[in-house]
Write a structure and sequence with these properties.
Order of helices and strands: HEHEEEHEEEHEEEEEHE
Shape: globular
Strand content: 25-35%
Length: about 220
């Protein structure tokens, strides 16, 4: 299957950041989602790390690195004015209590009803071993769930599928999908293509997507 060149991971994260409203409480999952923090400086967006940190800043570099201050990917992050700390019980009380407005996660697969798989990839041959972490609680409890991922696997296989073949993280929870090739919504009728990588066509996106795509009447190039 053909693999198209699309947005780099950092720019996928930028596009996600533009969809996050001010005054939101947001949790960023492992992978591309952690990069979203680099695009929120100066915004009134409160990042929550399930390990016990509220108001985390961008990813830390150089002298700003403190290994006691980390995100879900164990990457060092910065403090911002008003940063507070708490134990993991309080953290998950926030999550399970429905106090997170937006969760951004990566995924191995997403289907047209909003189911997604993110915690275990059977192709790695680890005999069912994966990494659930707080993903199921976050997916189930957040008001909105955004997925940020590459549109295909490294081999060019679709990650937008008709049926999950990997163990599900949550069912019917995904709201929006941001990939290197497109921005899509999960709607009652299926997957709605809203934005497309410059130079590609609807047919190009469909060729690397299993479900039949719905196309927005106002389809446009990805807005950055």
């Amino acid at each position: 299957m053909r693999k198209y060149e699309g947005l780099p991971r950092e720019i996928i994260a930028l596009r996600v950041s533009k969809e996050i409203e001010d005054n939101s409480y947001v949790n960023l999952g492992i992978g591309i989602p952690t990069l979203v923090s680099n695009w929120l400086e100066g915004r009134d967006v409160i990042l929550q790390s399930e390990i016990g940190m509220l108001k985390t800043g961008s990813l830390a570099e150089g002298d700003a690195v403190d290994q006691d201050l980390i995100n879900a990917s164990c990457q060092p992050v910065t403090e911002v004015e008003g940063t507070v700390y708490f134990d993991i019980c309080e953290s998950f009380a926030m999550i399970r209590g429905g106090h997170i407005d937006v969760t951004v996660m990566g995924a191995f697969q997403v289907n047209e009803t909003g189911d997604f798989a993110s915690w275990m990839n059977p192709s790695r041959g680890l005999n069912g071993v994966g990494n659930i972490g707080g993903s199921m609680d976050l997916a189930a409890s957040a008001r909105k769930l955004f997925i940020a991922m590459d549109h295909t696997t490294r081999d060019g296989d679709p990650k937008l599928v008709r049926e999950l073949t990997y163990p599900a993280t949550a069912r019917k929870k995904v709201h929006k999908i941001f990939t290197d090739l497109a921005v899509l919504d999960i709607v009652p009728e299926g997957i709605l293509l809203r934005e497309i990588y410059p130079g590609l066509t609807v047919e190009d996106i469909q060729s690397v997507t299993e479900p039949k795509l719905l196309v927005a009447a106002d389809l446009k190039e990805i807005e950055l």
